């Protein structure tokens, strides 16, 4: 691979075309050398003509844009869990060592639900040392032992991956992950991310957390996250990449992410300029109003997930108490 290229890869289907457009726009807008960018979009369903606006944007700055087709019948993904909330496209990052040209020996993979805030050339230049991957730790990864890791610090979020593809190919890292998915047959909690963590087995380089600002950084305290208060403040206020990691995204009406305006700012420089999500019914309007009344680092959707188990347990105890009182009567 020529040293002048900075290879960036996305995996996408039609459902994420708008977020992909925003991610690519933010990528090229912040690049220090956009002419060095070589953007690869791996997809089963997106055709080159559907991505012409992205190709024009990247190529107008001197970069390259390529669409990489992925076979829809790849037997290696048999057993991978897919449902209405989980597309097979999320597993396609595991196929990058095979579908990208052999000349691509290093690639920065980005999820589509990301806004780039800093030139990625700095991240691209990270020294991987003896490792084949650089990533950001997932904050409070409770399931680390489930995938065979010794501690939660060994578990990374798979939304931002600086990959040494030459080493992945030589060590068959992606094939190990694919085999693990088949072995587990849909039992993995975080799917391809769990499989990658199992395959890498803690042998990866830690990036500055600002290269993958995840929503949990807004929800928990520094002590709970095993961080200093100063480090957590930097991640919250000065992200390099904003990763919208919860089920609520900026293209949803009820989203309350404190950096959602970054998404809209990039979107307004694309063919989707002026678009904003609209409520599906009155419930979403009420929920958005409630979001506005909560401090920006406390997402109501997250709070519901935190408190719902306790609420359900309390309700069950009250029902039991009422039932027992009735039998005594």
From TrEMBL:
A Pfam family found in this protein is: Glyco_transf_8
Q: Which SUPFAM superfamilies match?
A: Nucleotide-diphospho-sugar transferases
Organism, per UniProt? Horticoccus luteus
Domain of life of the native organism = Bacteria
Q: Which GO terms describe its molecular function?
A: glycosyltransferase activity; metal ion binding
Matching Gene3D superfamilies, A to Z? Spore Coat Polysaccharide Biosynthesis Protein SpsA, Chain A
Which InterPro entries did the record assign?
Glyco_trans_8, Glycosyltrans_8_dom-fam, Nucleotide-diphossugar_trans
Q: What is the lineage of its organism?
A: Bacteria, Pseudomonadati, Verrucomicrobiota, Opitutia, Opitutales
PANTHER family registered for this protein in UniProt: GLYCOSYLTRANSFERASE 8 DOMAIN-CONTAINING PROTEIN (PTHR13778), LIPOPOLYSACCHARIDE 1,3-GALACTOSYLTRANSFERASE (PTHR13778:SF47)
Annotated protein name in UniProt:
Glycosyltransferase family 8 protein
Q: Which UniProt keywords apply?
A: Glycosyltransferase, Metal-binding, Transferase
